[in-house]
Automatic annotation (TrEMBL):
Transmembrane segments: none annotated. The lineage of its organism: Bacteria, Thermotogati, Thermotogota, Thermotogae, Thermotogales. The keyword Oxidoreductase applies. SUPFAM superfamilies: Dehydroquinate synthase-like (SSF56796). Pfam families: ADH_Fe_C (PF25137), Fe-ADH (PF00465). This is Alcohol dehydrogenase, class IV. GO terms for molecular function: alcohol dehydrogenase (NADP+) activity; butanol dehydrogenase (NAD+) activity; metal ion binding; methylglyoxal reductase (NADPH) (acetol producing) activity.
């Protein structure tokens, strides 16, 4: 494997629309970022994070060290939860406006960084709210500069133009995608991930696996999204078991983080479809449900549904997890069962019934998938027509183990 010859301590620039500093020790690029901001007179920032990650990872000590060195003032919003809400976005925006923030830092996984992206938009639009942003009431064309310091290997949000938030009273969990919310700079440092708990390691990685499953099979798929998908699965199959058995394995964390980043780039190019469109209602109805777990429970049923129409692609992409597929439509049951068995072997043994959903929820979930703002766009690029019966069948087939 070529990765044995890669020096994981060589911090390089992964250049997409964002300049991402990648590698062990990348957090020290905070010096360059702080100097860049200072030279341009951007000396007031709001930091958006959750109550834990920014401190336990060690990121905060480095960030504040360089803030102080370059005379950057900051205000801290540390109330972001998993499945962040538009109320949190509004709170952080108010804090940022009162402070006069010129830049928004997001430190954490997808939830804090997505919240930071949203705040960056609202700081440029007086009188607008998080709910208006996520219900598509206006189309932003500008945002304050965004810096993303990533602490998980799953979302890819540090290198893409997507963000997600929940509108709890409507049980909506829409997504947005705008060019103005690409981070200016981001940091992907594997040493910030060694404190990730077992379940977080698992769930965030499965998020990346779903990103490429969808990006390689949408109607917008392309050779680039498929190529990145193949490499993502190979790396996850190789290094997820290692990271689960030894959380301090920096080499395993490095390659899972790289897999997550290229998966983010893959769906930035190829978009998403069923799994994400159907998971968002799950965690909108049950906000405590981990996004990656919701995706994992749906994935086998989604693959079973779409495989006959994209068999050649998925057979090749999933070779490291379900070997021996020939890319024939009749293998749909085999690959779906193979993926579910692999997930169970990795430690995800829950299905929808395990987390409180039942047959009685199927109609409501189906309706939410079809009516939540933005999810219709995802469903419109699915490889098969996203009819109500198809969506309901995916939910139904995800209630129990196949």
């Amino acid at each position: 494997m070529f990765e044995k010859k890669v020096n994981i301590y060589n911090v390089f620039e992964l250049r997409c629309k964002t300049t991402c500093y990648f590698g062990v020790g990348a957090i020290d690029k905070m010096r360059d970022i702080s100097e860049y901001l200072s030279k341009r007179g951007m000396k007031k920032v709001i930091v958006v994070t959750d109550p834990v990650a920014y401190k336990v990872t060690g990121a905060w000590d480095v960030v504040t060290k360089y803030f102080n060195q370059f005379g950057i003032e900051y205000v801290l919003y540390d109330k972001v939860t998993p499945n962040p809400t538009v109320e949190q976005i509004d709170e952080a925006t108010k804090l940022g406006k009162e402070f006069g923030a010129q830049v928004v830092f997001g430190i954490g996984g997808g939830s804090p960084i997505d919240t930071a992206k949203s705040v960056a938009v609202l700081l440029e639009y007086e009188g607008k709210t998080g709910a208006e942003l996520y219900e598509g009431k206006f189309t932003p064309e500008k945002a304050k500069p965004i810096i993303a310091i990533n602490t998980t290997h799953g979302t890819g949000t540090e290198v893409d133009r997507f963000a997600v938030a929940s509108i709890l009273e409507k049980e909506y969990k829409p997504a947005i995608a705008y060019d103005c919310i690409y981070p200016l700079f981001s940091i992907d440092d594997p040493q910030l991930m060694v404190t990730l708990p077992y379940k977080q390691t698992l769930y965030t990685t499965i998020d990346a696996l779903n990103h490429i499953t969808e990006a390689s099979t949408t109607l917008a798929r392309n050779p680039y999204s498929i190529l990145l998908a193949k490499e993502t699965v190979r790396l996850i199959a190789t290094y997820l078991p290692q990271a689960l058995s030894n959380p301090n394995d920096l080499n395993a964390r490095y390659w899972l983080l790289y897999a997550s980043a290229i998966a983010g780039i893959s769906f930035d190019n190829g978009l998403l479809h069923f799994t994400h469109a159907l998971e968002h209602p799950l965690s909108a109805v049950k906000p405590d449900l981990a996004h990656g777990l919701g995706l994992a429970m749906l994935l086998p049923a989604v693959v079973k549904e779409i495989y006959p129409f994209v068999a050649e692609i998925l057979a090749e992409v999933y070779e490291p997890i379900v070997p021996g597929l020939e890319g024939k439509p009749g293998e749909a049951e085999k690959i779906a069962k193979g993926i579910e068995d692999w997930l169970f072997n990795m430690g995800i043994t829950e299905k929808l019934e395990s987390v409180g959903f039942n047959e009685g929820h199927v109609e409501k979930l189906t309706e939410l998938a079809m009516t939540t703002p933005s999810l219709g766009l995802l469903l419109s690029v699915a490889p098969i027509k996203a009819e109500k019966e198809v969506i309901a069948r995916i939910y139904r087939n995800s209630l129990k183990r196949m």
